[in-house]
Amino acid sequence: MRSSSIIDPADLNPYGQNILMDHLKIRTPAEMLELMTVIPQLPKLVESIPWHIRLHWVMFIRKLYLPPIQAEPVATTADLMLRQGYSYRNPAEPRTWAQLAGYRTLTKLKAAPATAAVLTGDSGTGKTELLDQSFGLYPQVIEHESYPGIIGSHKQVVYLSVNVPAGGRSHDLARALGIQWDLVTQGTRFARFIDLKNPKGEQMLDEWTLIARAHALGILHLDEVQNLFHIPPVKERKKIRAPGQPGPILHISDDETLKWLLTFMNIWSIPLFFSGTPDGIGALTNRLSTMSRISTMGYFSTERFDSIDPKSYFRRIFFKQLLKLQFVKDPVPLEDIDKLARLVIDRTAGIQRLIIALWIAAHRVAFDRARASRSKVDNLLIQDFDNAANTYLKLLQPCVKALLSNTPDARSRYEDLVPRDDDFWALFWNRIETL
């Protein structure tokens, strides 16, 4: 009997010899979190930098990423999904190629279970960033000089993240998948998808999946799954409802897309990670009949900050780091820190994206105040944050109040409580950055 004090090297590699995992190091949770953390650095002697240059330094606060409490379980889940999926698709085994052959071969890989997970949360709470950082722990594309069953080199795509297009139609999703595939592989395999005059979504999705399987796609991330559904018109969303009455029902935009999702999970054996807002995830789970179909590996949520208690994550980690990112000679006075923490939560509803926006906008207000002053003032005050919320973030304050009210009726009046629209945020940041 082998001594319990001696570890067999083979026991440290549960997956054995599998070329798909040769370049994917199994990391400890601490290593994952360290690699996911991004902290922008202040320049030396901030007060000596001209205002118009300093503002550009401030914009780097947008790069700040501090792994939330959910980061470790989400990253670990993605890691397990990736490796478990590859364990059933070892290209060195003849059965793998036998079951991958054929244009419309939908034969399920032997003993490979459907694997999926869900990440939900209000828009702006960091869903996409969390999954981007989790997948970023791996190389996205691996170029193998030699590959079982293939003459010459071969590309392995470890992960692919795609936003579900607005409207959720199958051919639009196929186009999005094809465009993103060509982008990460630096190829043109799906270029013709863009100009098809009579696109057939089912055929396009089948063709894309064939290529994805052949190139050993490890995990597919579908973001903004609420786009699979019709959003009720504003008039419907603003109807006053009795307490406890559900909000507007979301309807699937294209049943062909839903059919493909079911096939993807049950037949194609490629792990799938969904992310989206609560209404979209709720509608998806209702249409898929049972929650177990899309959360076999876990159901996670990103949360808003709602406490300024010194022991809370917000105060211990996030807010503490933000306080270090004050690009002024004289930062907010220590006696005002508690008031500032409360103001930040009240004016952003604890949404990370809004907190960052408010922090940057407050600097803009402070810089404008300093330039207009005849004295050599170079500081940041609580009033700067309040003024920033009332000017730069004014458009978002009704959304913030709806979130803070925490009532279904108030929340249901908005399609998206914190706009994710690229045009909106591009205009916002341009306004902040332009002096």
TrEMBL record:
KW ATP-binding (keyword) present: yes
> Which residues belong to any copy of the ORC1/DEAH AAA+ ATPase domain?
115-279
Which is a Pfam family this sequence falls into?
Answer: AAA_22
Q: Which residues form the signal peptide?
A: none
Q: Which GO terms describe its molecular function?
A: ATP binding
Under the heading InterPro entries, the entry gives: AAA_22 (IPR049945), P-loop_NTPase (IPR027417)
Q: What keywords were assigned to this record?
A: ATP-binding, Nucleotide-binding
Name the record gives this protein: ATP-binding protein
